[in-house]
Write a structure and sequence with these properties.
By secondary structure, the protein is α/β, with parallel strands linked by helices. The protein folds into two domains: about 140 residues, NAD(P)-binding Rossmann-like Domain (Rossmann fold, 3-Layer(aba) Sandwich), CATH 3.40.50; about 160 residues, Dihydrodipicolinate Reductase, domain 2 (2-Layer Sandwich), CATH 3.30.360.10. The protein is built from nine helices and 15 strands. The strands form two sheets. A nine-stranded mixed beta sheet has the order 14-13-12-11-7-10-9-8-15. A six-stranded parallel beta sheet has the order 3-2-1-4-5-6, with helices on both faces. Helix 5 links the parallel strand 5 and strand 6. Helix 7 crosses helix 9. The chain is globular.
Length: about 325
Amino acid sequence: MGDRLKVALIGCGSWGSNHARVYFELDDLCELTAVCDIDKIRAERIARKYGCKAYTDYKELISECRPEAVSICTPSSTHFEIAYDIVRKGIDTLVEKPMCTSVGDALKLVSEAERMGVVLMPGHIECFNPGVRRIKSMIDEGRLGDILMITAKRVSYWPERVGDVGIVMDTVIHDVYVFRYLLSENPYEVYALAGRLMHRFEDYVGVILRYGESIIGFIEANWMTPRKVRNLTITGSNAIVSLDYLTQEIVYENRDSIVTPIARWDEPLKIELRHFIEASLGKCKLEVTGYDGLEALKICEAILESSRMRKPIRFEG
């Protein structure tokens, strides 16, 4: 492995095309050698744009191009099969969230990655949002005091790219992981109510999560709101901090003042993919591991079970 990583992209849809762009822009660290999509026209369009090869069969891509790292941006229901196949070939893999659509598959994938000694990174992009990272620093520095409540609102109109999972696995999983990242712990209980109005799977949900002795988490998500909203609020005993995920603007409020720190906007995907490449090159320790993705899936499965059973679900241990 040299100083520049040979990377490939599987899945050239709306989000996959962003992966291709960022890899192309990170030319100091990597070379985008090939892209793959079952839609030949789409794959060829992305390949022409970034000067690489186009494929419709990812197995052919792997065999001919021999990439050292791969991004998987295919529909969620295909993640396990493709990722497992690639990990078994000893190739470092970033697989978009949800890493798999079941905890059982995620366990198999994580175990195989560990056996093969490869980097397996789930695409939990919000942990690379500079605003989230600034809030994490505030919490760790004690600027909020004892954390009491953490609330997320993630609403928008249905993204048509999503058709094989509901809003919990596609959308709520972001905030599930952010809560875990900020609090450095898993919830011990979840309670959720979900419904389906216009789609095959659940398209709106409200979730309550309980952490430790006194922390309460709330998540509101739906695919019916005309305007996209991505907000996070953490209430502590000394202060409250809120974040707009989209603008990365933070508002910090205590008894004496309200402060909006000035900070430069940075693209979370670029930060995330740079980290993946550097971890693959051995330049840093992986911050978001396959085990982290597995834990997020466990919580999301509990949310879905709670909504079906209409009762709280407690985690063992």
